[in-house]
Design goal:
The complex is a heterodimer. Chain A has a single domain, classed as Rossmann fold (3-Layer(aba) Sandwich). Helices cover 30% and strands 10% of the residues of chain A. Chain A is built from 5 helices and 5 strands. In chain A, α2 links the parallel β1 and β2. In chain A, α1 runs antiparallel to α5 and α2 crosses α5. Chain B is of the alpha/beta class. Chain B has a 5-stranded mixed β-sheet with strand order 1-2-5-4-3. A two-stranded parallel ribbon of chain B has the order 6-7. The chains are: A alpha/beta, B alpha/beta. At the A-B interface, α1, α3 and α5 of A face α6 of B.
Chain lengths: 169, 266
């Protein structure tokens, strides 16, 4: 059996940590950001790649869930059409608080190249967005970075306050 | 095979496209009797129906008929002349020229290895008879035609919009429909989700994709010069780290200076 020595007084090896409940809760939240399985267009391919073994979202605690009731993050991956807008809004409303939205790619940010009658010109017209990712489509690294920035943002927030009302709410 | 060599020197300075009002020449029309199989079909059709015009274009027989006959001609073509497959049907918008829609049925005969196109024209307000009882593939094609062009179809069992939402206003594939949508289209999602009262809060759509106001810190963030939402833009350089300065609770601190960049793949 492998022998290993725990250095209790070095490298935070002591099995005791002092902190506030607030920090602990937010630490837990930031490391279990379950995302909604919700791909709209080609950005969803990059989102799936981020979830798969090479980029591996699981190590950030981000697991895709097929139900909005179990999800905290909604990644709008792709073009949102006007016909579909109401369903996106409904899924967002079904998610339990606290909840965050990542708008992934040009189409979700501004409508992108689809400057037409059938495309919503930016998902922020219907749901509040926390992080916008540029790119067409953004690489998995960009999405990873966005999740990390979101984790940082969550750690800053207080656990026991209601989420600040965002635009459109 | 190598691509043909073209002298591309000075290509940036030259206008790449000279004739701005280039009109595509019509594809030459050939006599329907010039093809052996088509001439037989054409004779058979002429016996039974009134044919306005017939010609061969790019090896396909085009037949123009009266719109009232469409069902009879199609069933004749299917049962007698072996054109068993309706690969496509839709309408073209000629409202500006003559106030008419041109409706076409593209048929394929597997046995004869020939394609035939049936065409007819109807006025804007009139309707065409449904052919889905003859060709099942016409079911959704007719619904699409109704949805996008606004051509009415008689005796279709389920004539409702196929692509656009049911409460959409207008028919987007008509030449008169604006590409960026009319008034109803531009507020569609807002009206549907929030109601008309929210139009003022959300505001009109931003349709200029190149519009960037670098002093606008509400909609844009300058990378490496980030400021809080709505604050004045600053020239001070900021560094974005994904861990806080004092490290993250329970998580090992990421030390940039100790990280190693690999030159070759392991």
């Amino acid at each position: 059996m492998a022998q290993h020595k725990v250095k209790y007084l070095q490298e935070s090896g002591l099995p005791i940590a002092l902190t506030t409940v607030d920090k602990l809760v937010q630490w837990g939240r930031s490391n279990s950001l379950w995302a909604l399985t919700y791909g709209l267009a080609c950005c969803a391919i990059e989102m799936m790649a981020s979830g798969a073994s090479r980029y591996d979202f699981d190590r950030f605690g981000t697991i895709f869930r097929a139900s909005p009731r179990q999800a905290e993050v909604m990644i709008i991956a792709g073009t949102l059409t006007k016909k579909h807008a109401e369903f996106t809004r409904r899924l967002y409303d079904q998610m339990a608080e606290p909840k965050w939205v990542i708008s992934m790619g040009s189409c979700a940010n501004t409508g992108g190249m689809f400057n037409t009658y059938a495309t919503v010109q930016g998902v922020d017209r219907i749901i509040p967005v926390d992080i916008y990712l540029p790119g067409c489509a953004p690489r998995p690294e960009t999405l990873q970075y966005a999740v990390m920035m979101l984790q940082k943002q969550i750690r800053k927030e207080s656990a026991f306050q209601k989420q600040k009302p965002k635009r459109l709410l | 095979m190598m691509r043909e060599y073209k002298n591309r020197k000075n290509v940036q300075k030259k206008a790449y496209y000279n004739d701005r009002f280039y009109v595509v020449p019509n594809i030459p029309k050939e006599d329907p009797n010039s093809d052996e199989i088509f001439s037989k079909d054409y004779k058979e059709l002429k016996k039974h129906f009134q044919i306005k015009e017939a010609y061969i274009q790019r090896g396909q027989l085009v037949i123009i008929i009266k719109p009232e006959d469409n069902k009879k001609v199609l069933s004749f073509l299917k049962d007698e002349l072996d054109y068993t497959f309706l690969s496509e049907m839709s309408a073209n918008d000629y409202l500006e020229q003559s106030g008419e829609f041109e409706i076409f049925y593209q048929l394929l005969s597997m046995n004869k290895r020939k394609r035939l196109r049936l065409k007819c024209r109807i006025k804007e307000k009139s309707a065409i008879e449904s052919v889905y009882t003859i060709f099942k593939s016409a079911d959704w094609a007719e619904r699409e035609m109704f949805d996008l062009m606004g051509v009415r179809v008689n005796n279709h069992y389920n004539l409702k919009r196929l692509i656009m939402p049911d409460d959409w206003h207008g028919h987007p594939l008509r030449k008169t429909y604006p590409l960026q949508g009319d008034e109803a289209a531009s507020w569609y999602e807002v009206d549907k989700i929030f109601g008309k009262e929210y139009r003022d809060i959300i505001g009109p759509e931003q349709r200029d994709p190149a519009r960037i106001d670098r002093k606008d810190t509400k909609n844009f963030i300058r990378i490496n010069h980030e400021v809080p939402y709505g604050a004045k833009p600053s020239k001070e350089k900021t560094v974005q780290e994904y861990q806080e300065e004092d490290g993250v609770f329970f998580i090992d601190e990421f030390k940039k200076d100790k990280s190693k960049v690999l030159n070759t793949r392991r």
